[in-house]
Design a protein that fits this description.
Shape: globular
Largest sheet: 5 strands, antiparallel
Strand content: 15-25%
Amino acid sequence: MATLPASCRSRARQEWLQHDVTMLPLGALFSAVRIPGALIAALAGSAEPAQLDKFLCETLDGGPVICDPHFLRYYALVPASMPRTWRKALDDWRTQDVDCLGRGSYLGVPRPDAVEWSRPRATYWSVPMDSPAALCAPMDVARMIAAGWWHVAPERDV
């Protein structure tokens, strides 16, 4: 919520109450790496939400992750600088349906108490955010994406 000007925070609170999600701007305090659920499931060896959440928590060392089960995507929250500093890797990742959303993008952020999958909620915290300063380490996210792509790539040179 700190990404919003003070004048917009009451709107965000109202959206959380009415819709369980609010749109927050990215690129100032944090950015988000969008990762297809297939990559996570391939690495975790499961499609069960609780198992995927546990896997992400362990792999990303407790860094915050939002899940959108409707589109089967995960959003790892990373430092705001990642879209600039990881530009080359991001160009390669886009072929894998991975993208880094930063300045000029918005992300649907679930209520702080939406910490497990439930049908009425469109999104939830797969790994809850401990504090606004505690984000996923970019290198951990990059390693997970590389390993996931290796598992789901149709053909690999051996």
